Every structure is written in C-alpha cells, then in structure tokens.
Amino acid sequence: MDHSPAIAPAGLPLDDDADLTRLHPNYTHALRVQAALMAIPFLIAALVLEAVSRDAGFLPPGVIAGPVLLIALALVIRVPNRRYNARGYQISPDRLRVVRGLLWRSDTVVPFGRVQHIDVDQGPLARFFGIATLTLHTAGNHNASVSLPGLGEELAREMREDIRAHIRRESM
Q1: Residues 165 and 159 sit within 8 Å (Cβ to Cβ)
Q2: Which three-class secondary structure string do you get for the chain?
Q3: Which of 42, 34, 17, 24 lies closest to 123 in space, CA to CA?
Q4: CATH of the domain at 95
Q5: Measured distance CA(72)–CA(78) in Å, rounded
Q6: What is the pLDDT of residue 19?
Q7: What is the pLDDT of residues 73-114, one digit of tens each?
Q8: Per-residue pLDDT tens over the stretch 132-165
Q9: Residue 138 lies in a domain
Q10: 41 lies in which domain range?
Q11: What pLDDT was estimated at residue 168?
Q12: How many structural domains comprise the chain?
C-alpha cells in the first residue's frame, strides 16, 4: 500500500473520499496496544469483583469477568480497524484535508496560509511502531489545531517541511 500523500492539483476541490490517503498500517497496531492497556484495569477490577463475589457465594464464576473480557476483546480487535478505516487525509499544494470519525464524521480543511506552526509528535508507543502525529496550529480559536495521527515518521517530517516551504514562499 502506498503511503505517500495524494496531491490534488491546485484549484480542484478536495471532497472525494476515494482520493483519501490511508494512514500507516502500524497505526492499527498502536491503537490495539492502547486499547489493551486501557482494558487491563477493567479486567483486573472484574477479576477482583469476581473473587469477592465467589468468596461470598453471590454469583457463579464468570458472570462478571466473562462479559468484561468479551467487551475488552471486541475493543481491542474490532474498534482499532474501524478507527483506522474511518481516517484519511488529502494534501494539495495549498491545503491539507483531514477526515476522521466513526459516529461523528469530521472533515477539516486547513489552508496552509493560516498555519502558524507545525508539530511532529511521537510518544513511546508511536516511536515503537514508527509512526508520528502531524499537528497544524492555525490562527483563530475554533479548531485552532488539527492533528493527523498515524503517519509514518519520515512522511510526517516530509509533510512538515513541505508545508513550511509553502508558508515561506507565500510570506515572501
């Protein structure tokens, strides 16, 4: 799968979902690890409740921990794929479009002329999977920053430099 950004010619609308560039496939793995790490405290709590209820003789074994385990498995296996498939981006010579959301879809277009600064962030998990988040900070207070997680690390840095070069050309 090609992870280079899809460039739309200047002046053409950025509104066709078929032209969205997919995020790096390692983003799904990072989402799975995040979901598993978030599920661990709930599983521990369910096992503690299970042990307490078993000692008191209230409930049969597995009544609490079983459903919690099934929900955790669904969140670790299914939701990351859906989140990955619900995200994409499109870059043109003068703007970036970011599409995301499962239940509430968000389609944000950021003209490069409004960008004040650009960050490339990596936490330990993202660094392990070789991905990064590109964040564009713009003027104004509504949607003042737009983040694009799940890019390959090198691609995120290249996009940052391309956007900086565009801003420099525009400001001269």
Answers
A1: no
A2: CCCCCCECCCCCCCCCHHHCECCCCHHHHHHHHHHHHHHHHHHHHHHHHHHHHHHHCCCCCCCCHHHHHHHHHHHHHHHHHHHHHCCEEEECCCEEEEEECCCCCEEEEEEHHHEEEEEEECCHHHHHHCEEEEEEEECCCCCCEEEEEEEEHHHHHHHHHHHHHHHHHHHC
A3: 34
A4: 2.30.29.210
A5: 10
A6: 84
A7: 999 999 999 999 999 999 998 899 999 998 999 999 999 988
A8: 999 999 887 776 899 999 999 999 999 999 999 9
A9: yes
A10: 26-82
A11: 85
A12: 2
Nearest of 129, 152, 159 to residue 1 by alpha carbon: 152
Q: For residues 98 and 164, state if they share a domain.
A: yes
Query: Please, which residues bridge with residue 38 across strands?
Result: none
Q: Is pLDDT at 37 greater than 60 in this prediction?
A: yes
Residue 86: alpha-carbon gap to chain centroid: 9
Higher pLDDT, residue 61 or 28: 28
Pairing of strands 115-121, 145-152: unpaired
Residue 11 domain-assigned?
no
Task: Name the residue with tokens 């960050």.
Answer: 119
- pLDDT above 50 (res 127): yes
Q: How far apart are the C-alpha atoms of 134 and 115, rounded to whole Å?
A: 12
- Identify whether residues 166 and 105 lie together within a single domain: yes
Per residue in 2-24, pLDDT (tens digit) is: 455 544 444 444 455 558 999 99
d(CA 65, CA 71): 10
